């Protein structure tokens, strides 16, 4: 395996660089790109998930600074992704267990045919201008993420659709006629990709002034000082860090490995919490047989940790 060390002048010793990226483009050769991309990631020690589809690329990866730079350069060498942008943050330990490059029908699944952000999309708003837009009384602010994400953090005054999956979002819009009561719709998500499709869908539904936060919550938390921020709580991220806060610092949430819900320190102090087995969110929805099975898995995780190994089922 290629030894790529962390050579960035700003890198903390032992830290990993996390790169979140997506780009919508007509990518007819996506299937042929999977194997060379997977090979490069494996050779450089990069881990995470990258999704490839005819509509582009999406994912989050982590590794040394040099390894991430190598993978990003390889992706940008494709003419379809020459202008790909990414967002960076840090992790104190590797936040992924393995590397997966997957072929998909969509790089973010909305389930609505012919939604193309390259053809129609909302107006991008930079983080520095976001507070003014969402503070305007003529604006309806919508969080396009799912309920387990909004449970730990949300912009002040935002409407929470309480969706379980992004597939539910189009029906939520169709069933809420009150969204037409104000002229401006502002939308946001973790890194910006869901809003690309969400704003495209809203425009096709007849909404005129549709805006979305450029770079998503992650870019806002990176650039907007905490004392000026209208963000409340933490931002859920899809890796072992679970959440980040202002300045993209690692949050104090952990995942329940039974239900995959994010847990606060208060959740973990509950008598209904048992590491790897149950939490207050799922205790009443699991049987004792389920919990016994989870306990056996947790024992295997503990044994692997004692051997200095990573249990892939953890």
TrEMBL record:
Superkingdom of the organism of origin: Bacteria
GO molecular function: oxidoreductase activity, acting on paired donors, with incorporation or reduction of molecular oxygen
Entry keywords, A to Z: Oxidoreductase, tRNA processing
Keyword Transmembrane (UniProt): no
GO BP of this protein: tRNA modification
Xref: InterPro entries: Rhodanese-like_dom (IPR001763), Rhodanese-like_dom_sf (IPR036873), TrhO (IPR020936), TRHO_N (IPR040503)
Segments forming domain Rhodanese: 135-229
Catalysed reactions listed for this entry: uridine(34) in tRNA + AH2 + O2 = 5-hydroxyuridine(34) in tRNA + A + H2O
UniProt keyword Oxidoreductase present: yes
EC number: 1.14.-.-
Enzyme class: oxidoreductase
Family, as annotated: Belongs to the TrhO family.
Role, per record: Catalyzes oxygen-dependent 5-hydroxyuridine (ho5U) modification at position 34 in tRNAs.
Protein name: tRNA uridine(34) hydroxylase
UniProt organism field: Rhizobium rhizoryzae
Organism phylogeny: Bacteria, Pseudomonadati, Pseudomonadota, Alphaproteobacteria, Hyphomicrobiales
Gene name as annotated: trhO
